[in-house]
Design a protein that fits this description.
By secondary structure, the chain is of the alpha+beta class. 54% of the residues lie in helices and 19% in strands. It folds into two domains: 39 residues, 3-Layer(aba) Sandwich (YefM-like fold); 29 residues.
Length: 90
Amino acid sequence: MLEVLNYSEARRSLKSVLESAADRENTVVITRENRSSAVLISLNRLNELERAEKNEAYLKMLRQSEQEAQAGKTVSVTLDDLETGTTGGE
């Protein structure tokens, strides 16, 4: 659930605002007059968002690698090459 409060309301009811975000996992938007707003979320939600961001970056890398492989941009390496630190093209 999304809650929107101005700074004064949030300050007056800080305990309930924190409980709403942390315990009930609501998203709380705190607006400030003539300034940028802030968002308060639970630590669990932050971890989920960061995990999703990392997953998206990993999937982007995989898609790029797949496109490069389909375009023939590959290098063959043997186990011996890996053990000696050389590549097939050397």
